[in-house]
Each structure stands twice: as C-alpha cells, then as structure tokens.
Amino acid sequence: MATSVQNNKRVKTYHFHQEWETEFCFININDKCVCLICGASVSVGKRCNVERHFTKVHGNFSRDFPAGSSLRRDKITELKTTLQRQQSLFTKPAKKANSATEALFKVVHILTKRKKPFTDGGIIKEAMTAVAETLVPIPWQGECLRCLRMQ
Ligand SMILES: [Zn+2]
Q1: Is the Cβ–Cβ distance between 34 and 41 less than 8 Å?
Q2: pLDDT in tens, 51-109
Q3: Are 33 and 12 in contact (CB under 8 A)?
Q4: Which of 42, 94, 124, 145 fits a disulfide with 49 by CB distance 3.0 to 4.6 angstroms?
C-alpha cells in the first residue's frame, strides 16, 4: 500500500547546478534546463543529458570558446542578455496592458465616487492625475503632474 502511494507521487530528484551555466551553457528557467545557444530544453535535467546535448549539438563551442576563459564568460553573458531581451518582449506588453486597465479602474472609481459624468473640469483634472500617476514612468511623472496642476 505504501509503495503504491509513493509510486503515484512523482518527486523531482534532479536539480539544476549553477556550474552547468559556464560548463554546458545551460540555464534554469522555471525548473527547466534551457540551452543558451539554441533555446532547446532537456526533458530530464540530469547532468548526462545536459552534457550530451552540449557535446553532440554544440561540439564546436568548446573549441571556439575554451572552458574557463574570459571569452567564454563574455559569450555566456551575451547569450543570457539576448535571452532576457527575448523574454521581455513577451512580458512588457502584458505589463502595459495591466497598467492601462489599472488607470481605467481609477478613472471609473473617481466618476462613480462623484456620481457625475465627464462634464466637470475638476473631475477631469482628478482623473487625468490618476492616469498620469499610473501610466507615466516615474522620471517624467513629476513634470507631468506639475503641468496638470497648472491647468
Ligand atoms: Zn543547444
């Protein structure tokens, strides 16, 4: 009985080791071993699988970028930066959409709180201030809010 319960639970026994990053150009993303060079992931994150992928698919990498050299370190940093840039391509639009929705909710909250449509100048100013506080990046926020106060 106890063995069937243990068999049903799949316990992760393999963990990413940080030295694989410089040794095999692999990085840990959401508990998956992802190759920095080609973007492929290894199904089971064992050292032998990671090493096999690196030696079979990217055999020339160790020749071009010798292990332990600053050339290899720089190349891995460059590959990591490229991967982060690719990932931010998908996360940035989602953040913009979320802040636009937040600004919309703030405007609706102001309008329902005052129980008036967009006819009063004071409400428009208050709503635009709330939108500026939400959408405008922090370095330009102060100037934007100052301009709204002068209106
Ligand atoms: Zn690869």
Answers
A1: yes
A2: 999 999 999 999 999 988 999 999 999 999 998 888 888 777 777 888 899 999 999 99
A3: no
A4: 42
148 close to 128: Cβ distance less than 8 angstroms: yes
Q: Say how many Å lie between the CA of residue 79 and the centre of ligand 1.
A: 12
Whole-number Å distance, alpha carbon 113 to ligand 1 midpoint, is 56
Distance (Å) from CA 140 to ligand 1 centroid: 42
Tokens coding 67: 């292990």
Distance (Å) of CA 130 to CA 68, 103, 119, 135, 146: 53, 7, 17, 9, 13
Nearest to 72 by CA among 19, 15, 16, 30: 19
Q: How far is the CA of 20 from the centre of ligand 1 (A)?
A: 13
